[in-house]
Amino acid sequence: MRFSVVGSGYDRQQVDSYLDELAVRLTRLAARVEVIVGAGRDSDQIRQETTLLLALVDRRQADGDRAARPAAEILARARGELDAAREEARHLRERVYAEAVQARREFEASLRERRHRAARVDQLLTGLTVGTVPVDTPTAAAGGVPATRVATGVDEVPADRPAPGTWVA
Q: What is the DSSP secondary-structure string of 72-136?
């Protein structure tokens, strides 16, 4: 007899049904043996075999009950571990969500500060007027502006007021 395989073994209902059917057959066989005993055949041998088969069926049923207990314990332990894993995942989700909210707050604060600085720069530059520089004006890049005091012909610069654009050592 083949039994269907389910989550953690064979289909218990199929196995129990088969064992019940086998017990009925053995009981019928025992009854036939009793009839045959009256006929004088090897009744003791038949009786022993029948008793052995009945004991085998009873033992298998007891083994099935014993096997069901550890399976129930394993299932309960697995459910406990699953609950613990779910709880850990919930805590992790909450922590990650809180970190994401904090990161978003920090980003928004930084963005507000940047926009505030940009508005302040715009405000400062609004009143500033820049005139155009005539084309023939000498510039340092063109080599038309002296870079040192010696080139300008000035030997001394008053210490209290240096010339613009020069460094005083």
A: HHHHHHHHHHHHHHHHHHHHHHHHHHHHHHHHHHHHHHHHHHHHHHHHHHHHHHHT---PPPPTT
- Spatial neighbors of 100 by CB under 8 A, at least 6 apart, are none
Q: Which residues pair with 6 in a beta bridge?
A: 9
Label residue 74 by pLDDT band (50, 70, 90).
confident
What is the Cα–Cα distance from 150 to 25, expressed in whole angstroms? Answer: 129
Tokens, residue 127: 């009143």
Report the alpha-carbon distance of residue 123 to residue 117 in Å, rounded. Answer: 10
H or E stretch including 26?
helix 12-37
Kindly report whether the global pTM for this prediction surpasses the value 0.85.
no
- Whether the CB-CB separation of 118 and 124 falls below 8 Å is answered with no
| DSSP conformational letter for 162 | P
**Residue whose entry in the numeric block shows the structure tokens 């994401």:** 100
